Amino acid sequence: QAQLTESGGGLVQAGGSLRLSCAASGRTFSSYVMGWFRQAPGKERELVSATTWAGRSIYYVDSVKGRFTISGDNAKNMVYLQMNSLKPEDTAVYYCAAVKYGHTWANPDYWGQGTLVTVSS
Length: 121
Hints:
Blueprint: E1 3-7, E2 10-13, E3 18-25, E4 32-39, E5 46-51, E6 59-60, E7 68-73, E8 78-83, E9 92-100, E10 110-111, E11 115-120
Parallel strand pairs: 2-11
Antiparallel strand pairs: 1-3, 3-8, 4-5, 4-9, 5-6, 7-8, 9-10, 9-11
């Protein structure tokens, strides 16, 4: 059974860093684009960053450009989101997601269960 499992969330002070990890298992994800969404309280879920396993077509939402870095390790089936210079507005549940080539992020094919990131001011 295909599964995405996030880890690495927690409480951090503003200006600090966290690295989120996503373990992809249960199937081959080589034909999928991997991404990270987040959902803050009272807000809609938004795509934060996405990448192919080859590191091409990398996307970042404007609010995290220059602070977050997405990367993938195809051999380990792991996707990471390095988050630096965190701000209180980055507080959200972060979800790993996968979308098959040709599909859209409007409806990802797989979701993780989410990991909470809380940034204190």
